[in-house]
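Render this sequence as a predicted structure.
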Amino acid sequence: MNINEAAKAAKAASVHLSAVESKIKDKALAEIAKELKDRIKDIEKANAADLSRSKEENLAEPLLKRLKFDSAKVLDVVAGIESLRKLEEPVGKTLSTTALDDDLLLYKVSCPIGVIGVIFESRPDALVQISTLCLKSGNSVILKGGSEAKETNRILWEIIKTASNRAGIPDGWVQIIETREDVGGMLKLDDYIDLIIPRGSNDFVKYIMENSNIPVMGHADGICHCYVDDKADIDMAVRIVTDSKTQYVAVCNATETLLVNEKVASRFLPALKESLEAKSVEIVGDERVREIIDVGTATEEDWKTEYLDYKLAIKMVDSLDEAIVHINKYGSGHTDAIVTSDKNKVETFMNLVDSGNVFWNCSTRFSDGFRYGFGAEVGISTNKIHARGPVGLDGLLIYKYKMIGNGNIVDDYETGKKTYKHTKLNKEFKL
């Protein structure tokens, strides 16, 4: 099926999917989870073929780590599906109710966006998370994964398609495309596709935005920061920074740059170096950092780099204000954390750092839809649109206004026979 046919099928399915009952969607999610567990060996076989080919093609080590999809990762995504099933039905929720008059009620009600095109990197788990989130939120989805994961993506798509159709979900709701030509074609299909979510480099996201009339929810680099303040608990700071950098390095919420207040640097940096070197992390630092610990030299380019690997850049700063200026200049608006005991500084940091996620005394690795309780995430939005940060169900919904009248006409209000009341009500939409 070419991209035009896939988009048309997805659009047709989206109309019916938007009205599918919650129990059918949840049944489909259960079927998908069961099928994934039952076919773990088939999935691992397909993934092994992808890994073997990608190693021969000298795929970068961070991408190989993302590509690996073994039984443990299958069970992780199954757990995510089970968590998603437990969430309340997101479609058809009354967001607000206004009585324009006693017999004229206006409801704001959540509804699916429609057809979502998602272009993502080599992580096969992203395909499962994206598909199941779209299903729960009533959206059709067109998936374009990295070519390095094509065998794994194919089998996952087949499992999701077959299991969901068996449960009563309209055929055509989940589509997969595999070529760059298809991506180019997708960008032109604004009659069928309502939103594109690209996950990749800044240049790639900009390319998508500049070459399509379709709205784009961008997720580019994850240049995340930790700032260790002079009021930080040293042991706590070491634990948080180590986890933020090393818990899993090949992900967008891993810390890439550490900012250290000069008043605490001499006590903190040696302890951190010992902790990070135990995890085989390469450290580079500015001139003042290198006066305290023996590490490589950081350049201007390091402040702009998402390593996705065991490497950390460290800069010494004189104040909270300097840290905030650095983060807002070099960060990607993803996730940034402060470690301190000073609540006034926390408030300043959280208000002035221009990121979708701002944390106090905790690891940047918590920036994740599953950890937030969203069930999973379709991506991290670094845009300032209706969805920011981890995009779960809420980010895949829009709303429509439903008005219920009783023969009401505008002329009565324009001529003064009646007047608007505009009273806010706590009332669910119901016919």
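Summary. The longest strand covers residues 104-112. Residues 224-366 form a domain with the Aldehyde Dehydrogenase; Chain A, domain 2 fold (CATH 3.40.309.10).
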